Amino acid sequence: MVSKKPISEALQNPIFENLRKVVLSWNKPTFVIGGFVRDFLLERALPNDIDIVTVGDGMALAQKVADSMKNSPQVQRFKNFGTAMIKTSDFELEFVGARRESYQKDSRKPQISSGSLEDDQNRRDFTINALAISLNDHNYGELLDPFNGIRDLENGIIRTPLDPDLTFSDDPLRMLRAVRFASQLNFSIAPETFASIQKNAARLGIISRERCVEELHKILKCPKPSKGLLLLDEAGLLEQILPEVTALKGIEEIDGHKHKDNFYHTFEVVDNICAHTDKLWLRWAALLHDIGKAPTKKFKPPTGWTFHGHEFVGSKMVYRLFKRLKMPLNDKMKYVQKLVLMSSRPIVIAEDIVTDSAVRRLIFDAGDLLEDLITLCEADITTKNPKRFARYHKNFQIVRSKIDDVEARDHIRNFQPPISGEFIMKSFHLKPSKEIGIIKETIKEAILEGEIPNEFEAALALMIKKGKALGLTYDGETL
Ligand code: ATP
Ligand code: MG
Hints:
There is one protein chain. With 479 residues, the chain is an alpha+beta fold. Among the domains are: 7-155, Beta Polymerase, domain 2; 159-241, Hydrophobic Seed Protein, CATH 1.10.110.30; 421-478, no CATH class. The protein has 24 helices and 15 strands. The strands form five sheets. It has a seven-stranded mixed beta sheet with strand order 3-4-5-2-1-8-9. The model has no long low-confidence stretch (mean pLDDT 93). Magnesium ion binds at residues 35, 47, 49.
């Protein structure tokens, strides 16, 4: 639905009153354009980035605006893009001179010459992003909509203003943007526009991976990312960015044994998890949790299909995937890796009788990721059998309450061994040696198995016993 509010309401913030004054003396056609106008008309939360286009020198206008503002903010100039930005506490004002762009085949960098507002609207990616509002005195607040962007907003359509082949081959990033906007706004992509994306998909290769990832992040931040992910796939874009995910496609059948389609399953898991978390990297973990299944898939009679070790293989793939996409190889990557690695653990527990020791081990191994891991596992329940669905969820409730019980009793999370290596060394007059590791491991195992409580006294007794068994002499002086 397009807003019925008068356009003047878009310009209510005092910042526009100031712009109006500056534009009056600047005396060149100047407009608010792009996302701000679109989001006002859709009654979405107004973005704090406001794009302003002027028929003239955008940098000079930015300077004039900055000079007119109270504490004369700095103008940041981006010479490469011919844009200038002013940051205030509420807004980022971005200025550009109206321009015409012409592109070479193998580059995203256009040759730029100055042009009219129409030229500038022509170079915009979609009709809904080419809408402009005048800041000029004679028609202040008038909406300029040369490509019927309003109609496309009303019908929920993403469409290029010009021949889509030209728009996409000029700047293939726009193909990802089309899908991303469709996903964010829950719009569809016009058939001829979509056909052109399919035709030009291979040109995505000239786009930097960082920019592709930015769009992927935005798709994953949507309430229902499967919309964008499926469009990416249908367009032939997904296999170029995430071949590990498209490799999960398909169902095979041998001797009446079928496995589920892990590709569509994955998207369901992503949508499920989005209802429970805004954490971007947890959403990434959902997207990647099964990628190890493609390379590990085997048919083993009489069991049927197996994916042995897919969690481990998948976690290794996460590293290579992050590296290839130039995503940061930092704690975020490790977080995703660990969730992928552990993604079957709680399910295995939930399927069986939930024992204390299994829960203790889970708490110990998952550490700070425990809640997120369980959230992932619950999202992983995509069975269409209502009885099974209810049973699995119930089992996870049991796992959750067991976690609380065990944790309250045993304090396994962020486990600190009750006896240190140093203490063991002193007790048995040892130099660094493998016996210390063996004793430490014995104590840890006994605690996790529930054989002894997570307490000093009990650990000490076990230490002495194990030390004796290893032929060591205990020196009671350490106490
Ligand atoms: P959002 O801020 O939510 O990403 P937006 O539409 O404001 O949405 P920006 O990237 O901020 O997107 O760009 C502002 C405007 O600049 C767009 O509305 C569009 O008119 C134009 N634009 C941005 N990127 C491109 C592009 N690659 N090709 C053509 N026009 C673009
Ligand atoms: Mg924007």
